[in-house]
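Chapter summary example.
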Amino acid sequence: MFKRDPEQAAQRQTQHDEQRREREEWAARQKAETEALTAWRTTHPAEKTLNAACMLRPWPGSKFGETPRGPILGGHAELVDAGAHKAWTAARLVGGVATEGAPLAAGRKDKGAAVINVTFGNGSAHTYDVTPENTTLRMADQYVTAFNALATQLANEAAQQ
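The structure predicted for these 161 residues follows.
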Protein backbone atom coordinates (compact mmCIF):
# COMPACT_ATOMS: atom_id res chain seq x y z
CA MET A 1 0.00 0.00 0.00
CA PHE A 2 2.66 2.53 1.07
CA LYS A 3 6.11 2.41 -0.36
CA ARG A 4 8.93 3.82 1.71
CA ASP A 5 12.04 5.17 0.18
CA PRO A 6 14.97 3.52 2.00
CA GLU A 7 17.24 6.51 1.32
CA GLN A 8 14.82 8.98 2.94
CA ALA A 9 14.27 6.62 5.88
CA ALA A 10 18.05 6.37 6.38
CA GLN A 11 18.40 10.15 6.12
CA ARG A 12 15.64 10.72 8.73
CA GLN A 13 17.25 8.15 11.02
CA THR A 14 20.60 9.94 10.67
CA GLN A 15 18.94 13.28 11.56
CA HIS A 16 17.25 11.73 14.60
CA ASP A 17 20.53 10.18 15.75
CA GLU A 18 22.31 13.54 15.36
CA GLN A 19 19.60 15.36 17.34
CA ARG A 20 19.72 12.71 20.08
CA ARG A 21 23.52 13.02 20.28
CA GLU A 22 23.27 16.83 20.52
CA ARG A 23 20.66 16.57 23.31
CA GLU A 24 22.85 14.11 25.22
CA GLU A 25 25.90 16.38 24.86
CA TRP A 26 23.87 19.38 26.04
CA ALA A 27 22.57 17.40 29.04
CA ALA A 28 26.11 16.30 29.90
CA ARG A 29 27.37 19.91 29.71
CA GLN A 30 24.49 21.10 31.90
CA LYS A 31 25.17 18.37 34.46
CA ALA A 32 28.89 19.18 34.54
CA GLU A 33 28.18 22.90 34.96
CA THR A 34 25.68 22.22 37.75
CA GLU A 35 28.18 20.00 39.57
CA ALA A 36 30.92 22.60 39.16
CA LEU A 37 28.63 25.35 40.46
CA THR A 38 27.61 23.22 43.44
CA ALA A 39 31.26 22.51 44.26
CA TRP A 40 32.14 26.21 43.90
CA ARG A 41 29.28 27.28 46.15
CA THR A 42 30.35 24.86 48.88
CA THR A 43 33.65 26.75 49.10
CA HIS A 44 31.89 30.13 48.71
CA PRO A 45 28.81 29.92 50.99
CA ALA A 46 28.24 33.69 50.85
CA GLU A 47 27.08 33.33 47.24
CA LYS A 48 24.32 30.94 48.29
CA THR A 49 23.25 33.38 51.02
CA LEU A 50 23.37 36.29 48.56
CA ASN A 51 21.18 34.43 46.05
CA ALA A 52 18.72 33.40 48.75
CA ALA A 53 18.42 37.04 49.86
CA CYS A 54 17.77 38.35 46.36
CA MET A 55 15.02 35.89 45.48
CA LEU A 56 11.86 37.81 44.50
CA ARG A 57 13.80 41.07 44.74
CA PRO A 58 15.38 43.13 41.95
CA TRP A 59 18.85 42.77 43.44
CA PRO A 60 21.30 40.94 41.16
CA GLY A 61 22.09 37.30 41.86
CA SER A 62 25.48 35.70 41.37
CA LYS A 63 26.89 32.71 39.54
CA PHE A 64 30.58 31.89 40.03
CA GLY A 65 31.04 35.39 41.52
CA GLU A 66 29.64 37.14 38.44
CA THR A 67 26.39 39.09 38.31
CA PRO A 68 24.58 40.37 35.23
CA ARG A 69 25.81 43.86 36.19
CA GLY A 70 29.46 42.94 36.74
CA PRO A 71 31.88 40.90 38.84
CA ILE A 72 31.70 40.83 42.61
CA LEU A 73 35.50 40.75 42.91
CA GLY A 74 36.55 44.30 43.69
CA GLY A 75 32.99 45.35 44.49
CA HIS A 76 31.33 46.72 47.58
CA ALA A 77 27.74 47.06 48.81
CA GLU A 78 26.17 49.15 51.54
CA LEU A 79 22.68 49.46 52.95
CA VAL A 80 21.67 53.05 53.60
CA ASP A 81 18.69 52.97 55.97
CA ALA A 82 17.25 56.42 56.63
CA GLY A 83 14.70 55.27 59.19
CA ALA A 84 12.65 53.14 56.82
CA HIS A 85 9.61 51.62 58.47
CA LYS A 86 5.86 51.29 58.16
CA ALA A 87 3.87 53.45 60.54
CA TRP A 88 0.32 54.32 61.38
CA THR A 89 -0.73 57.89 60.70
CA ALA A 90 -3.28 59.51 62.96
CA ALA A 91 -5.88 59.86 60.19
CA ARG A 92 -5.48 56.22 59.12
CA LEU A 93 -5.60 55.01 62.70
CA VAL A 94 -8.81 56.98 63.39
CA GLY A 95 -10.29 55.75 60.09
CA GLY A 96 -9.52 52.17 61.06
CA VAL A 97 -11.19 52.58 64.45
CA ALA A 98 -14.23 54.33 62.93
CA THR A 99 -14.82 51.52 60.43
CA GLU A 100 -14.08 48.80 62.98
CA GLY A 101 -10.76 47.87 61.41
CA ALA A 102 -11.94 47.41 57.81
CA PRO A 103 -9.12 49.41 56.18
CA LEU A 104 -6.42 47.95 58.42
CA ALA A 105 -4.57 46.48 55.45
CA ALA A 106 -4.22 49.93 53.92
CA GLY A 107 -3.80 51.73 57.24
CA ARG A 108 -0.01 51.80 57.36
CA LYS A 109 2.11 54.25 55.44
CA ASP A 110 5.74 54.03 54.33
CA LYS A 111 8.03 56.25 56.37
CA GLY A 112 11.68 56.99 55.70
CA ALA A 113 13.69 55.32 52.95
CA ALA A 114 16.28 52.62 52.46
CA VAL A 115 18.51 51.83 49.49
CA ILE A 116 21.27 49.41 48.63
CA ASN A 117 24.25 51.00 46.90
CA VAL A 118 26.27 48.40 45.02
CA THR A 119 29.56 49.03 43.24
CA PHE A 120 30.71 46.11 41.10
CA GLY A 121 34.28 45.13 40.25
CA ASN A 122 34.04 46.65 36.77
CA GLY A 123 33.27 50.11 38.24
CA SER A 124 29.56 49.97 37.53
CA ALA A 125 27.45 51.36 40.38
CA HIS A 126 23.74 50.80 40.95
CA THR A 127 21.21 51.79 43.58
CA TYR A 128 18.29 49.56 44.52
CA ASP A 129 15.30 50.78 46.52
CA VAL A 130 14.26 48.73 49.52
CA THR A 131 10.66 48.70 50.69
CA PRO A 132 10.33 49.65 54.36
CA GLU A 133 9.04 46.29 55.55
CA ASN A 134 10.91 44.44 58.28
CA THR A 135 11.46 41.28 56.22
CA THR A 136 12.70 43.22 53.19
CA LEU A 137 15.06 45.31 55.31
CA ARG A 138 16.38 42.14 56.96
CA MET A 139 16.91 40.50 53.54
CA ALA A 140 18.63 43.66 52.25
CA ASP A 141 21.02 43.61 55.20
CA GLN A 142 21.68 39.91 54.61
CA TYR A 143 22.31 40.60 50.90
CA VAL A 144 24.81 43.39 51.63
CA THR A 145 26.64 41.29 54.24
CA ALA A 146 26.87 38.31 51.85
CA PHE A 147 27.97 40.51 48.93
CA ASN A 148 30.79 42.05 50.96
CA ALA A 149 31.82 38.67 52.41
CA LEU A 150 31.99 37.13 48.94
CA ALA A 151 33.94 40.12 47.58
CA THR A 152 36.43 39.79 50.45
CA GLN A 153 36.81 36.04 49.94
CA LEU A 154 37.36 36.46 46.20
CA ALA A 155 39.91 39.22 46.82
CA ASN A 156 41.80 36.98 49.27
CA GLU A 157 41.81 34.13 46.75
CA ALA A 158 43.08 36.45 44.01
CA ALA A 159 45.85 37.71 46.29
CA GLN A 160 46.98 34.15 47.04
CA GLN A 161 47.33 33.26 43.36
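To summarize the output: The chain has a mean pLDDT of 83.
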